[in-house]
Amino acid sequence: MKPWHLPAFLLALLVAAIAGWIFDREGQQEVEAELEIPDNIDYYLVEARWRSFDPDGALNFELNTPHLEHFVKDDTSIVLEPEIRYIAGATSWNMRAQRGKMLHQQDAIELTNSVRIQRETADDPMQLSSEHLRLESLNEVVFFDHPLTLQSPRLRLNAQSAVLRIERGLHEFRGVRVIYHDQGA
Fold first, then answer.
1. pTM to 2 decimals?
2. With the C-alpha atoms ordered 161, 122, 83, 51, is the resulting torsion angle positive or negative?
3. Which sequence spans correspond to the domains of the chain?
4. Which of its termini does the chain have fewer beta carbons within 10 Å around, N or C?
5. Which residues of 11-31 are buried (b: 16+ CB within 10 A; e: fewer)?
6. Three-class SS of residue 20?
7. Could you tell me the end-to-end alpha-carbon distance of the chain, in angstroms, rounded to an integer?
8. What residues pair up with 112 in beta bridges, in sequence order?
9. What pLDDT does residue 86 have?
């Protein structure tokens, strides 16, 4: 081996290493530039469970979701496939939807896309379906601004909108069509 081969070989190796480092660094910058992370996400949770208790310590609200993202700027959380158990007095309501939005400052949650609510009681079970609802848990009021269907063993009700004041037991329906089955006749 000639004496100039070793320095030439080392110089070629050094040039190849520097070129590889430069090209690798440029490739990393392109990948980083493609990834856009919103600057307003505070946190996200996977397989989350959120519980709320009344002043006496009794459970009044439980939310289960496979995915929750919280946004700092407007203090909201987006939930996917939320399942909610809402307890009002002696009645338990189970709610499901494809999407939900928690409005923390207003202590409210909005459910959208294939909203289903079930009341499981032995004497009066009921299922309600719609595309949108808003639950304000402090006031115990549920607002439906989309058409809804309420079904029970004795009743089928279609309405254009509704307001359910759960604590008072007062339910207001607008644009109603009802089919009632009298089981006593």
1. 0.69
2. positive
3. 1-36, 41-180
4. C
5. eeeeeeeeeeeeeeeeeeeee
6. helix
7. 111
8. 99, 132
9. 84
